[in-house]
Write a structure and sequence with these properties.
The chain is mainly β and 195 residues long. Helix content is 9%, strand content 62%. The chain has an eight-stranded antiparallel beta barrel with strand order 1-2-3-4-5-9-10-11. Strand 3 and strand 4 form a beta hairpin. About 4% of the residues have low confidence.
Amino acid sequence: MFYRILLIAILSAMWYSTSAQRDKPSLPIKISILQQSVDLPSFRFLNYSIKPAATIGTEYRLGRGKNHDWHLSGDVGFYFHRQLRTAVFARAGIGYRRYFGRFNFSARVLAGSALVFATEPVYGFQDGTYTEVKNSGQLVFMPSADISLAYRLKQNELAPELFLSYQIAIDSPFSPAATLPHLFVGGGLLFYPFQ
């Protein structure tokens, strides 16, 4: 239900941006292709096998200074970890972006939730023995933070941007008393489809 509400909100905001006044920029679409790993923040992910993740989202600029802006952002995505679990998630948060010519550096803090499914059989203890049980998923809290470096392809506020991203996230609870840290590293494209 949460994912449907978030998706409707994102689509409504995109529709609203196309019907808004011409002098206000529309909402961008941000697409990321990522490598996911279960690890504490580091650069050891370079040695890991491929565990794909992807997100699609948007952002709404709250205010812009000469060389910076604050923005609200939201995204939906998934990750797949063959030996552990797979998940779909939705997140929303606030970010800060600093401009250096065509380059910009941004940081975001997000809160969200994920619906996670085990990729291996799940067993439960019933009637004195372990038996396989249905894997219907588990809803977990997923706070996260990220930093990114982007390059705007033209010297225009609405020009597409290519970016590299480094994200950390936590699934909680992973078990009754533990959390599971994730790293997401990759890149993507931010563009304005309705300009």
